[in-house]
Amino acid sequence: MSLDDYRQLTFERRDNGVLLITIDRPDKYNAADEELHGELARVWRDVDADPDVRVAVITGAGKAFSAGGDLAMVERIAGDYDRVQHMLREMSEMVYNVIGCDKPIVSAINGVAVGAGVVVALLADVAIAAEDAKLGDGHVKLGVAAGDHAAIIWPLLAGMAKARYYLLTGEMVTGAEAERLGMVAKALPRDQVLDEALRVADVLATGSQQAIRLTKRTLNNWLRSAGPTFDQSAAYEMLTFMGPDVVEGYTALREKRAPRFPSAAD
Length: 266
Known about the structure:
Oligomer: single chain
Low-confidence stretches: none
Shape: globular
Largest sheet: 6 strands, mixed
Mean pLDDT: 96
CATH architecture: Alpha-Beta Complex
Number of helices: 13
């Protein structure tokens, strides 16, 4: 694909080889449907291959970074083996394409980041969040295992005790708390987030490209070494998409009530 082929990501080429990527579905708080999920998985290969790009900055249009998976998409996937198999392959591509992209990636987390959004937000090489942004992995509240990116990065960023707490409870963490825990590089007032991300991108884009890219590649060996753990978590998430709890999870969300998961029934 070329950048012209994307429909839910928009691009702005800036000075010094900085590419600003905007998740552009603001009417849905940039929630990922099948099309957007696929674009977020593929775009990093195109960024890596583009000779005019040195650094990518990714942010969300409107008030959110990305509010997770579109609920209608979740309903379509649940219990559908072919869709589950496709999603397993695509979520793996998203994680490994971000890790494998030689160009530095800066995330400007301007609002809520959940699901595929928080994958990109936290796997970025430099993450800058709004102090009042909310980040989280809410898989367990939906009735599925925490897959996506959580097992590969949360223990490394936040430590095992905090990773266990947030991933087992599904609670959200604010941008300010994420900075305190070491999950993001900086937390700033919302209106300063994108400007700071672009400033950092310019620093990276005007530095020694070989030195910066090889440093990124070396640091990401920590993530590559956790690859088997991620692969297992992704498979477990898709396994639970074939069970009854996820049906209750998305039904409860639709009905705006607390879930009554079959696996927790007396």
